[in-house]
Design brief:
about 150 residues; 8-stranded mixed sheet; globular; 2,3-Dihydroxybiphenyl 1,2-Dioxygenase, domain 1
Length: about 150
């Protein structure tokens, strides 16, 4: 199966400190920072390259899902990009294997704009997002910018 890592999402305690580190120390470009600061989007991102971003999830996003709010872990989830056919086949396999879809299909923003996503967990509880972008026939097209 052909796929790409679209993004990872980190749970952060201090979003400004993390933004400063990633943008000023590592020199990653920020994405949606002004929109985040205005309250128009729930989190900012930093771009590693044309095909991958890191989403910085502020405490208000992850605290509600962590039970007590004390054990945040650093990784919120990771996202895999598939073409639409492979994504639909995966959805069928998940249903056949009785893997619960926790959210979706829903539109979500990622490294290539808005795609259609589902969220589920692996056997050890890691949260996984898979998505496809309309107009891309293969994950490789995301790499090539087609």
């Amino acid at each position: 199966m052909e796929c790409l890592i679209d993004h990872i999402a980190l749970n952060v305690e201090d979003d400004e400190k993390m933004l400063t580190f990633y943008s000023q120390v590592l020199l990653f470009a920020t994405e949606r920072l002004e929109e985040y600061r205005r309250g128009d989007v729930p989190f900012p991102s930093v771009r590693l390259n044309a095909d991958m971003i890191i989403d910085l999830f502020p405490k208000k996003m992850w605290q509600k899902n962590s039970g007590t709010g004390q054990n945040r872990g650093e990784l919120n989830h990771f996202c895999i990009v598939l073409n639409k056919e492979a994504w639909e086949n995966l959805l069928e396999r998940l249903q056949t294997n009785k893997v619960a879809i926790e959210e979706g299909p829903v539109p979500r923003w990622g490294a290539h704009g808005t795609g259609i996503s589902i969220y589920f967990r692996d056997p050890e509880g890691n949260f996984i997002e898979t998505r496809y972008y309309e107009g891309h026939n293969s994950a490789a097209e995301c790499l090539l910018g087609s």
